Amino acid sequence: MPDPVDYTDSQTLIAAYVASNLVGIVFLWIAYRNTKLARFMFLLLFGWASWINYNTGRSDPEVYLDYSERAIGFYSRFITGWFSDHITLFVSVIAIGQALIAIGMLLRGWIVTLACVGVMLFLIGIAPLGVYAAFPFSITVSIAAYLVMRKDDKDFLWKGLGKGIRAGRKQESIS
Fold first, then answer.
1. Which DSSP symbol is given to 2?
2. What's the rounded Cα separation, in Å, for the pair 43 and 150?
3. Nearest to 51 by CA among 90, 89, 19, 98
4. 28 alpha carbon, distance to own chain's centre
């Protein structure tokens, strides 16, 4: 596994922060324009996060203790307290939840709704990590998940993704 990025370096932290929030704005714009593409992006984001967290939680769990440095009070105390003794277990459960969100974005009906709620709860839950969660990324992308939950037809992702992308292109050429 590659060496982790050094987020204690202020230039790296600022670059990651800005990039994450730009991605958040793109998520919001795409969710407004094309919910199928947004669902696909959620699938990729949460699938990737699940894989990273699961593997990092097993190979280098102490890296998660760094989050306490910039988290708000009770989150910082939780991270340096109970969490510090149960990192692998806790992060594995988070990774499983992220994987379920990714899978839920593929499916249909109430499962898509549940996956969107999972996105919102997870992202609002990490907001108190502050800069290390690229706040306000979590709020922006939670709004994107809300838009998907309200506007998407909630059919299987593979049934509408190509059609949704083509429709989005047609809408853009008309606008």
1. P
2. 18
3. 98
4. 12
Residues 105-149: tens digit of each pLDDT: 999 999 999 999 999 999 999 999 998 899 999 999 999 999 999
Instruction: Kindly report which listed range (23-27, 111-115, 129-133, 159-163) carries the lowest average pLDDT score.
Output: 159-163
Token pair recorded at residue 83? 């969490």
**CA gap 60, 5 in Å, rounded:** 13
Which residues, 6 or more positions from 84, have their beta carbon under 8 angstroms from its beta carbon?
65
Q: In 69-90, which positions are buried (b, 16+ CB within 10 angstroms) versus exposed (e)?
A: ebbeeebbebbeeebeeebeeb
Q: Where are the domains of the chain?
A: 10-167
What pTM value is reported for the model?
A: 0.86
